[in-house]
Amino acid sequence: MKHKHLEDKTEHVDALSEAVAELDQQIQLSLENQQHDMIDHLDDYFDTVETRLASLRNFCRSLREQTGKEKKPQ
Known about the structure:
By secondary structure, this protein is mainly α. The chain is built from 1 helix and no strands.
């Protein structure tokens, strides 16, 4: 009787171990997907920042041309 009980517990532990391994794999995939999504989001964000910065530089250049002022040396 004890032997059967031990077998049942062993099977239960094995099933739990498999479930934990599967959950771990799903979590890893989810984290990788989130990481890729965040990288894509940051890439898009920096593209937007670069575009806005270029637009601002053009605006400043245009203002300098209109006012006849030269860029100050740094």
